[in-house]
Amino acid sequence: MNAEGLVTALRPGIVGITATSEAEPSLFVISLVTVTGTSPLATITSFTASPSLIEVGDTATLPWQVSGEDVVVSLQPDVGDLGNATSVEVNPLEPTTYTLTASSAAGSDQASVTVRVAYAVADSHLCEGDYLVSSQVDLAARTSCHSKSKGLERNLSH
Asked: What is the pLDDT of residues 89-146, one digit of tens each?
């Protein structure tokens, strides 16, 4: 409570207020006040990647939902100006973790999702990072994927 007797609540809910008398400190009044409305606190209610595993060259959609008053949203790694968008399409060349930040005057919230990237290396085989992903892996062939760099260059050994 400030000097004017104003109480500010950051969230909807019930706020307890106790008032005492300066002349008689043993006299006091307790009041419960219900605060309604939207919270000024920025909150991320949903942030996902769809799909969360893509092949090189494909895109994933990162949709989100936020609540609060005067919320500003940013995404790292930076994908450009988001404006009033509620999703963005990304096409990373390597596994990438995206962190969404929702900020308002009352505070901020963060959430992260990872988009994994698979590399096509043979019929029905995908190489994700250093791992071979397939429902038909021929273990006798000892096929393996090796990461030579963080780019697209991959080496396949038999």
From this structure: 999 999 999 999 999 988 899 999 999 998 766 555 555 554 444 444 443 333 445 4
For residue 48, CA distances in Å to 81, 108, 114, 132 come to: 19, 18, 9, 25
116-151 burial by CB neighbour count: b if 16+ within 10 A, else e? bbbbebbeebbbeeeebbeeeeeeeeebebeeeeee
- Give the torsion through C-alpha atoms of 6, 10, 12, 13, to 10 deg: -80
pTM for the full model? 0.58
Longest CA–CA span in the chain (Å) reads 90
pLDDT tens-digit profile of 37-59? 556 789 999 999 999 999 999 99
- 72-76 and 96-104 beta bridge pairing: antiparallel
